[in-house]
TrEMBL record, chain A:
E.C. numbers: 2.7.13.3
Domain Response regulatory: 940-1068, 1092-1229
PROSITE patterns noted in UniProt: CHASE, HIS_KIN, RESPONSE_REGULATORY
Residue span, Histidine kinase domain: 634-909
Source organism superkingdom: Eukaryota
GO-annotated molecular function: phosphorelay sensor kinase activity
GO cellular component terms attached to this protein's record: endomembrane system; nucleus
Protein name: histidine kinase
Gene3D superfamilies: 1.10.287.130, 3.40.50.2300, 6.10.250.1190, CHASE domain, Histidine kinase-like ATPase, C-terminal domain
Organism annotation: Eragrostis curvula
Subcellular location: Endomembrane system
Modified residues (4-aspartylphosphate): 993, 1142
Lineage summary: Eukaryota, Viridiplantae, Streptophyta, Embryophyta, Tracheophyta
Record's keyword terms, sorted: Cytokinin signaling pathway, Kinase, Membrane, Phosphoprotein, Transferase, Transmembrane, Transmembrane helix, Two-component regulatory system
TrEMBL record, chain B:
Record Gene3D superfamilies: HPT domain (1.20.120.160)
This protein's name: Histidine-containing phosphotransfer protein
Domain HPt: 50-134
Function description: Functions as a two-component phosphorelay mediators between cytokinin sensor histidine kinases and response regulators (B-type ARRs). Plays an important role in propagating cytokinin signal transduction. Functions as a two-component phosphorelay mediator between cytokinin sensor histidine kinases and response regulators (B-type ARRs). Plays an important role in propagating cytokinin signal transduction.
Organism expressing this protein natively: Eragrostis curvula
Length: 1238, 158
């Protein structure tokens, strides 16, 4: 209906002023309506008249901001429209429209009745549809707030669309009206369009923003979506969008047609106007000329016939007519012919002196050829009409009988009969050859009454005044005065004879398109003339109509597309949200996790929040997770690099002098950094594992060594926490396995770290067994270490829980039972199936958290992570790794009691390897750090401990050292074993736990032992055994007591081979104090023993110390204190094997001295070579080159190149470091280190 | 023989033990001293004491040298520096860490050409020197007193 209305409106506007007023009313109405609306939208309306608007607001459930937006939108375009037409809107109309608004009902009936305004109808219909739509969805809306949001979004777009339609309509009407009234230029149109488009785009962008915000809120909202209703809403709104676009396209077509019609009509009208104007002008001109001819006729009758003698002769007439030519612009000439009867002919001819001549018919000769003398005399006739006077231009017709010409004759006869001017039909004028008409007036003897009969008139006739019109030139002249003659083609016809009109004027142009005919009255009723006008050119294409309608179509399509896209993206977002929900729901449903799993679901959400834009691009959840991990891995890698820099700098900062607070800050910062790096590494690891890029190594390694390593990692932590940390590897586990030691270690480290985090008291106990072994016994603790020891059992000290710390632990067997490896034991010859259990007495995992602890980023609950920290990836990494190794991981946990994690792993048996036979020592050295010290082989030990589990651990370590173990689980049995002289072998050592039977009981045992010793009750020839106390910590007084009494020592837990061995070495004086330096010390000794070494240093202390150090390795040291002395000493021949030279010395520094020494040596070498001196005089040495090593306190200053340049062989730092001394000495003394080791 | 070093460390309020982990507060002695102690054996039973007494003799001489040089050549920092360098070498040889640190800052002051802070450093070095001498003397005193018993303990295991 809109286009029809537009057409109507446009038409009426164009035609009538009343319609102008109508258009004004439309505009005014709209403006006012929107004003009201805007006020209502702002929510500030207190006015009663606006109540309905408010009601509308309520009904539409439009947010005030939306309404405001709408209002501003509309008012924007309307304002412009208004500005365009401000002159046209009359006050009355405004008042009218105001009244219209004041009772604007939503239904719009009254409005359409009272005001035939299509625009109003459109708007209100739109609004009403909105309301209808709303009503339909209203029940759903009320269900809950969230739903409301969704649906609101759903209907948001139709509202928007309708708004745009209104806007569009308004804009279009504005355009139409504008164009019609002001004959608008294209520029204004373009301006309007762009403004319209801009407002639409802005509104859409705002809508999208709002939507995005809402979807964000949606994501944060915990409540579940009611998807179906939202979906329905969207479906509905999509359909509405399609309908809207179709309507918009129709509108654009209608706009085009109406505008085109308008253009055509205007063209036609234009033509009519022009044609009429021309015809009228021609007619007027002609009439003026005719009147003048009439006047001339009267002049002739008055002065020629009325006077006697005549006042006019040819000359006078000529003069007069020439001077009055301007009065007759259309006439080429006038002449006067006298009526001469045949009877009077002779007299007349005599009077004038010439014969009446006949007009030659069909004479086509030109003017200058025309000679009246040549003309034939007129034949005899009743009367003649010879021309007696003529204007200069037609002088040639003087004496020609006008009645002899056919046209003239007719004309003359008609003229004298009617008494009016008569026109000939167009004919070719004499001489000029132009088409022309001749006008003839009759001159009468006296004034005749108007009703005189023709006979009377003929009688009264005296003569005839003729005037010729040269039509083409005259019309040309006339048209030239008018504008736009190029556009228009004019043709003039004589249509007296209807069947064959005679063309009087006009080019041979074919007229294009429309033709307009206007009749012309030249004052001769018997003749009819017509003027035909038409446009020279085809009408141009209606560009404005085309552009406007196209623009409208484009806008409609664009708006449609935008809305559609918005709907789609919303749908997508909601889908994604739903998927997320499902995932989260699944995670929560699965909801079980150990409290020890370090992370929270909120962490997951955090990650997803961060990554959500990326996630939305991917539909499948698995893909998303993988993407997240990849993203994290990439980011982590980028973080790691600068983080290392930070840590390094912090370390350096710590080495500077800081006060306590600063120190504390730096330490904290560094620890945090380390934690961060750790986390990043974990993430990287997980990503690597998840993406399947981890390949397991297959190298020989020692399980026990790996476990010792793990223990050492956690020893400090366990000591500070006061937790017992212990490891026990079954005897049956082979020494060397083939597998991936790093990954194996990582698994154990993760699990132990996890346990460590959640355990505050008690113990953490790592056990490694063969699967077969466990399967056989089904009881780990009872039967593991059955062989090779006697249990001195005392039933009185029965422990309620036979565990490491005496605390209850979770039963491990439950989880183990489910392992495939236990069910289907595959005892292949070359594989070793290990089962590792890590038992702790931590806080345990709640039942519901137990299923999700291996999920990445999951911790038992958020409170756990708050208390204990951690990322929660450790366990999932562990799980992946275990599975990679072909094993399984499982756990049992009792909240409040503790948890036991176990995993199985498959390794290859090393066939070639055994301890004694090492085919590639270099290889195994990498993975089996140090060969187990064999210094203690054959020793025996008594382990006194109340807890057999703990005792077993001690035994495990001692047996690795090759120490035979006995066990006593009470102090009495211990003493009896110790003091029993009859025993065939007394133990070399006694190991007793500090808390063997309770707090401090171990020490008590020791005290008692010492007392026994000092009191002399126990005097035995045998050497007193060393007593070692095992414990996590020892107070200084206890430590002093132990040392001073001289019998005991303390071994700090957790036990591992190297600590025990080191302690034993110290106690028994076996080996060299620093075990790890043993090899080098030996080599140094072997290298330096008996060597003569010169030490050059100006500083007495330095000299002394250096000499002492070298002497320690068996060197014979000579000291000098200056460079000059050194040169003297080193003058060949000498017996020195090497020289250590201080670099910085007064007078002559080390470099200078060396240079001089080398010079001397060179000289002597040359002399020997050339035979100037005998070799014998230089101790039979043909080549002298004493190794000189620089000693410097400043390692940075002493570059190797610098030393070499001046002839030195190397440098050592001062004071000596064994390692460096070794490498320097070994290098230049060229003694194969490996030889000396073996 | 580690026992002696332990005692010294105990005397020095456990600073030396912590030295490796935490640089501050620096003890009077560092690792190097126990290395020197390690050099002592049957062939040279009083090696440590000899070295220490040598150190004190030498360092006293060096410090006097420094003082004289500073008076004689008031602005010849490079000359001062050479002397301080010698002192520093001695310190590092026996592991007198605090003195060594003072020497380092002394040298820095010399490098910066700051007479004021050189003077301050000199006083500080002197102070450290005196403190160290006192500590070590009492230590050796203690060692001598505990000698037989300590020896007994130490040699018990051998």
């Amino acid at each position: 209906m809109a286009p029809d209305g537009a057409g109507e409106c446009g038409g009426s506007c164009r035609r009538t002023k009343a319609a102008h007023a109508g258009a004004g009313a439309v505009a005014g109405f709209l403006v006012c309506l929107l004003l009201v609306w805007a006020i209502g939208g702002c929510g500030r309306s207190g006015c009663g008249g606006l109540a309905k608007t408010e009601e509308m607001v309520g009904q539409f459930n439009l947010s005030s901001s939306q309404l405001q937006e709408l209002a501003s939108l509309l008012s924007l375009s309307e304002k412009r429209e208004c500005m365009g037409k401000s002159g046209l809107i009359s006050d009355g109309n405004q008042v009218n429209s105001m009244t219209c608004i004041s009772d604007t009902p939503c239904t719009g009936d009254r409005i359409s009745g009272g005001n035939k305004n299509w625009l109003t109808d459109v708007i209100f219909e739109d609004l009403c549809t909105i309301q209808d739509k709303y009503d339909k969805s209203a029940p759903a809306l009320l269900e809950n707030k969230l739903l409301q949001n969704v649906i609101h979004q759903g209907i948001g777009s139709p509202i928007q669309r309708n708004v745009h339609q209104c806007d569009l309509c308004a804009g279009i009407s504005g355009l139409n009206v504008d164009q019609n009234i002001v004959s608008s230029s294209n520029q204004t149109v373009v301006f309007y369009l762009s403004a319209l488009f801009g407002t639409i785009i802005i509104s859409i962008v705002q809508a999208i923003c709002k939507r995005g915000k809402k979807s964000n809120q949606l994501c944060h909202d915990e409540k579940l979506l009611q998807i179906p209703s939202a979906k329905a809403g969207r479906k509905w709104s999509k359909r509405a969008v399609f309908v809207g676009v179709l309507v918009g396209l129709c509108i654009s077509i209608c706009i085009f047609s109406s505008m085109y019609a308008d253009v055509v009509a205007r063209r036609k009208e234009n033509l009519v106007n022009m044609c009429d104007e021309r015809a009228r002008m021609l007619q007027d001109q002609f009439n003026v000329s005719m009147n003048h001819v009439h006047a001339l006729a009267i002049l002739v009758s008055t002065f020629h016939h009325g006077k006697n003698p005549s006042a006019i002769d040819q000359r006078t007439f000529e003069d007069f007519t020439a001077r009055t030519t301007f009065e007759r612009p259309l006439m080429s000439g006038v002449a006067y012919a006298l009526k001469v009867l045949h009877s009077e002919r002779e007299l007349f001819e005599q009077q004038h002196g010439w014969k009446i001549k006949k007009m030659e018919a069909g004479d086509q000769s030109l003017v200058h050829d025309y000679n009246p003398e040549k003309l034939e005399p007129s034949p005899v006739q009743d009367e003649y009409a010879p021309v007696i006077f003529s204007q200069e231009t037609v002088k040639h017709i003087i004496s020609v009988d006008m009645l002899s010409g056919k046209e003239d004759c007719d004309n003359i006869l008609r003229s004298r009969a009617t008494g009016k001017g008569a026109l000939t039909s167009p004919f070719k004028l004499l001489k000029s050859n132009h088409l022309g008409v001749v006008l003839t007036y009759t001159v009468y003897k006296y004034d005749l009454p108007p009703n005189a009969t023709p006979e009377e008139r003929i009688d009264a006739t005296l003569g005839y005044l003729g005037a010729s019109f040269d039509v083409p030139s005259l019309v040309d002249k006339l048209l030239e005065q008018l504008a736009s003659k190029q556009k228009i083609v004019v043709k003039l016809y004589d249509t007296t004879n209807h069947t064959s009109p005679i063309k009087m004027y006009g080019a041979d142009f074919t007229m294009s398109g429309d033709l307009h005919i206007s009749s012309i009255d030249f004052g001769d009723p018997t003749r009819k003339h017509e003027m035909h006008c038409g446009f020279k050119h085809e009408p141009p294409l209606p560009w404005s109509a085309i552009t406007i309608s196209t623009a409208v179509a484009i806008i409609v399509l664009l708006v449609g597309h935008i809305i559609y896209a918005t709907l789609n993206s919303l749908e997508k977002a909601e889908d994604n949200y739903r998927v997320m929900r499902e995932l989260k729901g699944r995670a929560e449903a699965a909801d079980v996790a150990k409290s020890q799993v370090p992370s929270t679901s909120s962490n997951v959400l955090l990650y997803f929040d961060v990554l959500s834009p990326v996630f939305y691009l991917f539909s499948s959840s698995a893909e998303r997770l993988l993407l997240a991990l990849q993203f994290l891995a990439t980011v982590s890698h980028e973080i790691r690099t600068p983080m290392n820099g930070v840590l390094g700098m912090l370390q350096m900062l710590m080495d500077t002098e800081l006060d306590t607070t600063q120190q504390d800050f730096v330490v904290t910062a560094q620890e945090s950094g380390k934690v961060l790096i750790n986390l990043i590494n974990e993430v990287l690891d997980l990503a690597k594992i998840e993406s399947g890029r981890v390949e397991l190594e297959a190298v020989p390694f020692d399980v026990r060594d790996i476990l010792d390593n793990v223990i050492s990692l956690f020893s400090e932590k366990s000591q500070t926490k006061g937790i017992e940390l212990a490891v026990l590897v079954s005897d049956q586990v082979p020494v060397v396995l083939i597998g991936d030691p790093w990954r194996f270690r990582q698994i154990i480290t993760n699990l132990v770290g996890n346990s460590m985090k959640f355990t505050e008291r008690g113990h953490i106990f790592i056990q490694v067994h063969l699967v077969a072994e466990l399967n056989r016994t089904r009881n780990v603790l009872d039967d593991v270490s059955a062989q090779n020891r006697e249990i001195i059992n005392d039933p009185e000290t029965f422990m309620p829980c036979n565990t490491l710390s005496g605390l209850q632990v979770a039963d491990n067997w439950k989880s183990l039972k489910n392992f495939k490896m236990f069910k289907y034991l595959n005892d292949a010859m070359d594989t070793v199936n290990l089962v590792v259990t890590i038992e702790d007495t931590g806080i345990g995992i709640t039942k519901d958290a137990q299923t999700r602890i291996f999920t990445p980023f999951m911790q038992a609950d958020s409170s756990t992570s708050r208390t204990y920290g951690g990322t929660g990836i450790g366990l999932s990494i562990t799980k992946c790794l275990v599975e990679l190794m072909g094993g399984e991981v499982g756990f049992t946990s009792n909240p409040g009691v503790g948890s036991t994690f176990s995993f199985t792993a498959v390794f290859k048996k090393s066939t070639a390897f055994c301890k004694e036979n090492k085919p590639s020592p270099g290889d195994i050295k990498r993975y089996c750090s140090e060969p187990t010290p064999s210094d203690f082989h054959g020793m025996s030990a008594l382990i006194v401990d109340g807890r057999c589990t703990r005792a077993e651990i001690t035994i495990y370590h001692l047996r690795r050292l090759g120490i035979q173990c006995d066990i006593a689980d009470t102090s009495e049995s211990g003493f009896s074993a110790l003091l029993d002289n009859s025993s065939k072998r007394s133990p070399n050592m006694v190991l007793i736990d500090k808390d063997a039977w309770g707090e401090g009981s171990g020490l008590a045992f020791y005290r008692r032992f010492v007392d026994l010793r000092l009191n002399g009750t126990h005097k035995s020839s045998q050497a007193t055994p060393k007593i070692f106390l095992l414990g996590c910590s020892i107070s200084p007084t206890e430590s002093d007591y132990l040392r001073l009494t001289g019998y005991g020592d303390f071994i700090r837990k957790p036990l591992r081979l190297s600590t025990i061995a080191a302690c034993f070495r110290k106690a028994f004086g076996v080996g060299i104090t620093r075990q790890h330096h043993k090899d080098q010390s030996l080599v140094l000794r072997s290298v330096l023993t008996g060597k003569q070494i010169l030490v050059v240093d100006d500083n007495a202390v330095n000299r002394k110390v250096a000499a002492g150090a070298l002497k320690k390795y068996g060197a014979i040291v000579t000291c000098v204190e200056s460079g000059n002395d050194a040169i003297t000493m080193l003058q060949p021949p000498h017996t020195f094997d090497a020289c250590f030279m201080d670099v910085q010395m007064p007078e002559m520094d080390g470099f200078e001295a060396t240079r001089l020494i080398r010079a001397v040596e060179r000289e002597i070498n040359d002399m020997i070579q050339t035979g100037k001196v005998s070799v014998q005089s230089y101790s039979d040495k043909a080549h002298w080159h004493v190794p000189i090593l620089a000693m410097t306190a400043d390692v940075i200053q002493a570059t190797f190149e610098g030393c070499i340049q001046c002839g030195m062989d190397g440098y050592v730092s001062k004071p000596f470091e064994e390692q460096q001394l070794y490498s320097a000495v070994a290098h230049f003394l060229e003694i194969d280190a490996t030889d000396s080791v073996s | 023989f580690n026992g002696a070093a332990h005692l010294v460390r105990a005397d020095d309020s456990d600073a030396a033990t912590n030295r490796r982990r935490r640089p501050a507060p620096p003890g009077y002695l560092d690792e190097q001293f126990s290395q020197v102690e390690d050099l002592q054996d049957e062939t040279s039973p009083n090696f440590t004491e000899e070295v220490v007494s040598l150190f004190f003799k030498d360092s006293t001489r060096l410090m006097t040298n420094i003082e004289q040089t500073m008076e004689k050549y008031p602005r010849d920092f490079s000359r001062w520096d050479a002397h301080v360098q010698q002192l520093k070498g001695s310190c590092s040889s026996i592991g007198a860490s605090r003195m060594k640190n003072e020497c380092t800052s002394f040298r820095n002051s010399c490098g910066a050409g700051n007479i004021e802070s050189c003077m301050r450093s000199l006083q500080k070095v002197k102070g450290e020197h005196a403190a160290l001498r006192q500590k070590l003397e009492s230590y050796f005193q203690l060692l001598r007193q505990a000698g037989p018993a300590g020896m007994a303990i130490r040699h018990g295991g051998m």
